[in-house]
Amino acid sequence: MGSTWSIFKIISEGKAASRFLVAALLSFSFSIAVILSTIGLMDGFELTLRNSLKGSSGDFQITSTKGFFLKEKLSPVLEDYSWTSIMQLEAFAVANGTNKGVLVKGIEAETFQKITNLAVNVEGGVAIGSELASTLKVQVGDEILLTFASDQMRDQAGAILKKYPVTSIVKHGIYEKDLRFVYIDRGELVQTFNYKKGAVNKSLVLNKEGDDFEVSRETLEAVLADSFKVEPYWAEYKTLLRAVEVEKASIGLILQIIVVVAIFNVVAFIIFIMEKKSQEFFLLRAFGASVKTITRFWKALLFFVWLISSVLAVGMTWIFDWLIGRLPVFELPGDIYVLSKLKLELGLEDYALVFSLALGWILLIGTVTMWRMKKRTVLSGLRQEFK
Asked: Are residues 244 and 366 both part of a single domain?
């Protein structure tokens, strides 16, 4: 214990050593925080995207390869599930001299909200996405014109034009949905196009609580006729989600270079101390301190540097998350990145992975450095200051 305390007094003596140690701690913690933030951004992007998709699509989407179908056909199969059916059509929305291609969804408001948790008021009008409202420069109470292509033989190349008041503005959290989605009562669309009462072209289904997601999907697919297709809510963005997973792994590996560079600062601190305090260390060895004791102390110091740096990195990550959520410079172009805002999402496994890799690097590089130094004899160390 006396030898350990003497070693600690040696390295803590002098402003230069203390400043060097603080600089090494800050650089190492910053490199860990960068990796944590990168992984957190990737996880946050994926989680936000999945939640936003689920918030407008339920758990499963059932469509028919033949287009429209009667929703009653699904009733026997889905009697144990919560579900709703919609009629989805393309149209143009026009207001204030601006027009935009939109996807009009005819819904049953009560069951739709139960499945998606999306509050949509379509009573006496239409609900539109927030980006669409901004593009058309309309607010609740204003009118928009919807232009549908007629599917009647007598009206070929014609169009159906109808004006509707905007009854609510919906925020999905996904740029394309906020820009393209218009909600209307399904009965209104049935009446407009003179379809059969139960005509729909998509059904949204909630998975039963406690059931495995993939098992439920395969069960539904097996029970339904071949003309129906069952897809998870993320199906339309599955390529993007896979790309995020691959990028998270590759970027995480590449950023290990930052950790290695920061560890060299720690190694430089060790070399600096060993060179500047060489005589004191070798005097301790001459007075009986074993190489094992000194080595154990340096390993403990490396562990201390890693531990303090990890704690500082967590604090820096929180600061990064706060800045990302509030500064306009971090806003994304939603038409390119799907989402307009990012946030960090980190689980215990992310912290464990990053911290363990950092510990492995610092022990590996630090131990190799100390191994080379301890090969020097006591006599050569005592002569160091006279060279």
From this structure: yes
Residue indicated by tokens 């301790």? 284
Q: Are strands 60-64 and 126-129 parallel, antiparallel or unpaired?
A: unpaired
Measured distance CA(206)–CA(61) in Å, rounded: 9
Domain residue limits at 218: 60-232
Domain boundary among 213, 232, 251: 232
- Single residue among 232, 262, 283 that ends a domain in this structure: 232
Q: What is the pLDDT of residues 187-206, one digit of tens each?
A: 888 888 888 888 888 888 88
Per-residue confidence (pLDDT) for residue 143, from 0 to 100: 92
CA distance 45 to 364: 33
d(CA 243, CA 308): 34
Q: How many CB atoms lie within 10 A of CB 207?
A: 20
Number of domains making up the chain: 2
Cβ atoms within 10 Å of 234's Cβ, excluding its own: 15
Residue type for 148, please?
A: F
Residue 164's SS3 state is strand
Degrees (nearest 5) of the Cα angle 91, 93, 95?
165
Return d(Cα 177, Cα 195) in angstroms, integer: 26
pTM above 0.90, yes or no: no
